[in-house]
Structure to design on (310 residues):
């Protein structure tokens, strides 16, 4: 079977096969590794029948790579004690948690990773970190880590997120008709994904604005994800160079950085909301060519900013 599949992929699809990564494995006897996951079938007996259930872990190499990345982030914090570096440390942890959340034993693996890094965190950061409480988390992080009890620390008023705090996310309702190789399958992929531009999303995640609050930096990411990386007025997909985060009610009036007071806009739309010069407004309107619904959304935001409607 292995040779038949290999021949088909090479002859018909012109795809190169990695001898090191390609093999046939009896999962009942041996484990198999795939994209950082280690899989093995284990016997499970019930009253009615006997069956096998797959248990999945992070591979040893994946744990070692994660450990190396986190050590580098810890060293960066030690070298330069700043909110930006703490932010990057948290982004690395949450990236690892999100990617490996499909593993059935992810909590066990992350506990091992946490234990490996405890000494590094203690030796390098003990003099600059202070104890924190769950309430020191931003609201979105409180929602993410609700239910986990562990000792928390903060640096520059930003809490270091717990490494172990990730439960397995069961992937249900998988449709076998979803496929990249059929017309129907591709349509289902596009309908279900509503994908965010990866380049823009990576830029948003990594960018930290020191002059703004931690709450603002955190909530603008949540808002960007909720809008699928698209402008709230025009609905167009945003790029790293033209996305802006807007306060619905002016910040100077309320100092409100909450999730509900933020929205993601195209840079030109953002300027149009705050603009008061009628000639410049006309030029920008002609360039954007907003329809009736889009203009209504724009005017609603202008009124919230205490500007007159267009």
């Amino acid at each position: 079977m292995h040779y038949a599949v290999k021949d088909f992929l090479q002859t018909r699809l012109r795809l190169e096969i990695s001898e090191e990564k390609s093999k046939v494995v009896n999962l009942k006897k041996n484990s198999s590794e795939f994209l950082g996951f280690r899989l093995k079938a284990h016997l499970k007996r019930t009253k009615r029948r006997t069956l096998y259930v797959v248990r999945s872990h992070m591979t040893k190499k994946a744990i070692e790579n994660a450990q190396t990345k986190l050590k580098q982030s810890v060293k960066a914090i030690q070298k330069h004690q700043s909110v930006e570096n703490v932010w990057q440390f948290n982004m690395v942890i949450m990236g690892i948690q999100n990617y490996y959340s499909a593993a059935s034993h992810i909590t066990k693996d992350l506990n091992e990773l946490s234990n490996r890094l405890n000494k590094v965190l203690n030796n390098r950061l003990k003099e600059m970190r202070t104890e924190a409480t769950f309430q020191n988390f931003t609201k979105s992080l409180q929602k993410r880590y609700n239910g986990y009890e562990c000792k928390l620390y903060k640096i520059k008023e930003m809490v270091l997120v717990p490494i172990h705090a990730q439960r397995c996310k069961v992937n249900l309702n998988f449709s076998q008709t979803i496929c990249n190789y059929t017309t129907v399958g591709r349509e289902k992929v596009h309908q279900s994904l509503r994908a965010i531009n990866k380049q823009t999303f990576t830029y948003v995640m990594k960018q930290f604005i020191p002059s703004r609050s931690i709450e603002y930096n955190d909530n603008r990411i949540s808002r960007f994800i909720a809008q699928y990386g698209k402008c709230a007025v025009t609905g167009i997909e945003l790029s790293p160079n033209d996305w802006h985060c807007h306060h619905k009610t002016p910040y100077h009036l309320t100092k409100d950085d909450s999730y509900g007071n933020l929205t993601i806009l195209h840079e030109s739309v953002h300027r149009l909301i705050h603009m008061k010069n009628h000639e410049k407004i006309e030029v920008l309107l002609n360039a954007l060519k907003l329809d009736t619904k889009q203009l209504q959304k724009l005017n609603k935001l202008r009124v919230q900013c205490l500007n007159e409607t267009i």
